[in-house]
Write a structure and sequence with these properties.
mainly alpha; 2 domains; two-stranded antiparallel ribbon; 15 helices; about 55% helix; about 0% strand; elongated
Length: about 450
């Protein structure tokens, strides 16, 4: 609401100031000197010049004083194009109206008359067209367009233009619609060309040809015309007392030209968008950098593994466990020599690599049964009960064998398989008791003492 009131009061004050200046310039002291004012053409031209000066003063005051130069009105961006467009569209506007009136037999031309000072009259008509365009499509149009956009600016200024045209208000609906449509048409060209030159030229052609030449446009009571014409037929087509501006045919031509102006605006926007897109610098295509050449290197030669001689597959070998330390942390004692005085056999080879060692001789000189080779997967414990029972069973077949701890120490070197040994005779009570408890197992060894099966070994 605040924005609306601001715009409304600016427009109202603008029009009021312009009217006040017109009254001031209409006073006696602003009339031309001598007999110049008695000439109708000069008097009209003088009045139009004063009106333009008043409008120029008020517009400058509002544009540079109130708006601080923000809403400047430009005459033309491209003068040759705007002049040509104005001439073509102005001729289509007035020519289309005359053509339709002639086709419908609504107009008849009379005699041709001479007009004195025709160029002065034409100049006065031109200044009048400039005043009307600057007044309606100058500051007021720019203000409304800045605040509300194109459509609101076109509608509001066209309504103001129709309201200021008192003759149109007196002659009915068609004349009001024509004045409103004409203002819309001129405003569209103002938007399309971004200046006032094209609307001014079109407005001048309509008034000069229609008023000064044909007399079908009412410019004022004192304006002459070269041709006399008579309009006949119904008022809806001929225009009646308002002539061209009250004719439905003129309104039809104006509406068609409005459609043409909309097409021009849309095409112009598309062209501007294309030109803007073409003017933008295109990003350079990203070129992937060439890969850096890798330095040539000699191929890595893998060492050729030595080919071992083909041998029969053996069982997975695992290292024999080291003997457990004694309770006192002392190293295990050196095994006792055999009865024959030979040193203890070395570690037994694997089944696939070394032959089974010969059994140590017993005290009676009889060789003990050859024990089965020690399995590489046998644990240190080897189930001490089995070892003790095998050793005692082996000794029972020979001379007198001591019992208990003495039996264990006696049979150690001879009964155990090669590479295996029992811990030293510390904590003898545990192992002695265990040996005694395995008496039943010892008896079972008499018949087949060295052929344990599977996990029994």
């Amino acid at each position: 609401m605040r924005k609306f009131l601001e715009v409304f009061f600016k427009i109202a004050i603008f029009l009021i100031l312009w009217t006040i200046l017109l009254k001031v310039f209409g006073m006696t002291q602003f009339r031309p000197p001598g007999n110049l004012f008695e000439n109708a053409a000069l008097a009209e031209l003088w009045f139009q010049v004063l009106s333009f000066v008043a409008l120029l003063i008020v517009s400058t005051l509002f544009v540079w004083g109130v708006e601080r130069g923000r809403l400047k009105t430009i005459l033309s961006h491209r003068a040759p194009r705007d002049i040509l467009l104005g001439v073509v569209l102005g001729c289509l506007w007035i020519g289309g109206t005359l053509g339709l009136l002639a086709i419908t037999d609504s107009i008849e031309f009379g005699e041709r008359r001479a007009v004195d000072l025709f160029l002065l009259w034409a100049l006065a008509v031109l200044i009048n067209a400039i005043i009307q365009e600057y007044l309606i499509h100058g500051y007021m149009f720019s203000l409304l367009r800045d605040k509300y956009g194109d459509i609101a600016a076109i509608a509001a200024t066209s309504a103001i233009f129709a309201a200021l045209n008192a003759r149109a208000l007196e002659n009915g609906t068609i004349s009001i619609l024509f004045v409103f449509a004409a203002s819309v048409f001129l405003a569209l060209l103002r938007i399309h060309t971004k200046g006032l030159l094209t609307p001014i030229i079109m407005h001048f052609i309509w008034n000069a040809v229609g008023g000064l030449v044909i007399g079908g446009v009412l410019l004022g009571d004192n304006y002459p015309s070269i041709w006399t014409e008579a309009l006949s037929g119904i008022d809806l087509i001929s225009g009646g007392n308002l002539r061209f501006e009250g004719s439905g045919l003129a309104l039809l031509v104006t509406v068609v030209l409005i459609d043409l102006a909309v097409i021009l605006i849309n095409d112009g926007r598309e062209d501007r968008l294309k030109a803007r897109a073409a003017s933008k610098p295109k990003p350079a295509a990203t070129v992937a950098p060439a890969p850096m050449p890798k330095p040539a290197s000699a191929p890595i030669q893998k060492p050729t593994p030595a080919i071992a001689p083909t041998a029969a597959p053996t069982a997975t070998a695992k290292p024999a466990p080291a003997p457990a330390p004694t309770a006192a942390g002392k190293p295990a004692p050196t095994p006792a020599p055999t009865a024959a005085g030979k040193p203890a056999p070395t570690a037994a080879p694997t089944a696939a690599a070394k032959p089974t060692p010969a059994p140590a001789p017993t005290a009676a000189g009889k060789p003990a049964p050859t024990p089965a080779p020690a399995r590489a997967t046998a644990s240190y414990a080897m189930n001490r009960a089995d070892l003790i029972s095998m050793s005692i069973a082996a000794k029972l077949s020979g001379a007198d064998v001591p019992q208990g701890e003495d039996a264990i120490e006696y049979i150690r070197p001879a009964a155990l398989p090669r590479g295996m040994d029992l811990p030293p005779a510390n904590n003898t009570s545990r192992r002695t008791d265990r040996a005694d408890r395995l008496a039943a197992s010892i008896a079972a060894k008499f018949t087949d003492p060295f052929e344990p099966k599977g996990e029994q070994r």
